[in-house]
Design a protein that fits this description.
By secondary structure, the chain is α+β, with helices and mostly antiparallel strands. It is built from 6 helices and 5 strands, in the order ααααβαββαββ. The protein starts with a helix and ends with a strand.
């Protein structure tokens, strides 16, 4: 009887100990899970804060850059443009009292000044964000293409497919235009291209923008990203636009953007 009672007591003690072990284990697991959940939440909050900080930093950088462009555009239009216009007037006055042989030279100089004045005005429009925001997307791109084509170093063809749609925000128009402008600028400076194609494809859900040149290209893995490419990527990220940049040695460089419409 004593042995039986002792066995029952030991069994009860073992069951009790196992129960306590389960309870303690459960508490430990619960505390660990709560801790992990809390830790994950804090990490997510920190990542969100960092993301918001990075976005604000990028926006500030872009705003400073655009304000600089705007100021340069105004200076070109108001000051340089005025000086060129004044010089053209003086040449026209000089022609009225010049000899025939000199008149031809003055005519050539006057034509060059008029061309320069037109170039300065077109450039000022492409730099001034106020002008861009008060024009349609098609108009600002066409103005830039006309300006570049007049240089004679790069021939740009421009095509638009589908029904035009307004972008989600006016600022998005400026962002997309600056990306296009940067790609064209890089083609002029580095690609040694003679032709560049630009296509806008409108669909109900998004706008596809495709740019490609016939330049020398390069191997993406073998170069360090320059400020131009970094700026294009940052601008695309700010307006939730898919950014696909590619280049092949001796086959040219291309860029595909997909801008989503919100009200679909």
């Amino acid at each position: 009887m004593i042995q039986k009672a002792s066995s029952n007591a030991e069994r009860n003690l073992l069951v009790y100990m196992i129960g306590v072990l389960f309870v303690v284990s459960g508490l430990i697991i619960t505390i660990f899970l709560v801790f992990q959940k809390r830790k994950s939440k804090l990490l997510l909050e920190k990542m969100e804060q960092q993301k918001r900080f990075d976005e604000e930093l990028i926006k500030t950088q872009q705003e400073i850059q655009d304000e600089t462009f705007k100021q340069v555009g105004r200076e070109l239009h108001d000051n340089v443009g005025q000086l060129l216009a004044l010089a053209s007037m003086h040449l026209n006055l000089a022609k009225s009292s010049a000899e025939e042989e000199t008149k031809q030279k003055l005519d050539n100089a006057s034509d060059s000044l008029k061309t320069s004045l037109a170039e300065v005005r077109a450039l000022s429009k492409s730099l001034n964000s106020d002008v861009i925001l008060n024009s349609t997307f098609f108009e600002i791109i066409q103005n830039e293409i006309n300006r570049i084509n007049k240089l004679g170093t790069l021939e740009i063809t421009f095509k638009q497919n589908g029904a035009h749609r307004h972008l989600n925000k006016n600022q998005d128009r400026l962002m997309l235009f600056r990306i296009i402008q940067e790609f064209i600028s890089n083609a002029l400076k580095y690609s040694e291209a003679s032709e560049l194609n630009l296509v806008l494809n409108y669909s109900p859900s998004h706008l596809d923008i495709e740019l490609s040149d016939n330049g020398i290209g390069f191997e993406l893995n073998n170069i360090k990203k320059g400020s131009g490419l970094i700026n294009m990527e940052k601008r695309a990220a700010l307006i939730n636009t898919d950014f696909q940049f590619s280049s092949q040695l001796h086959k040219g460089t291309s860029l595909k953007l997909q801008y989503p419409f919100l009200n679909v």
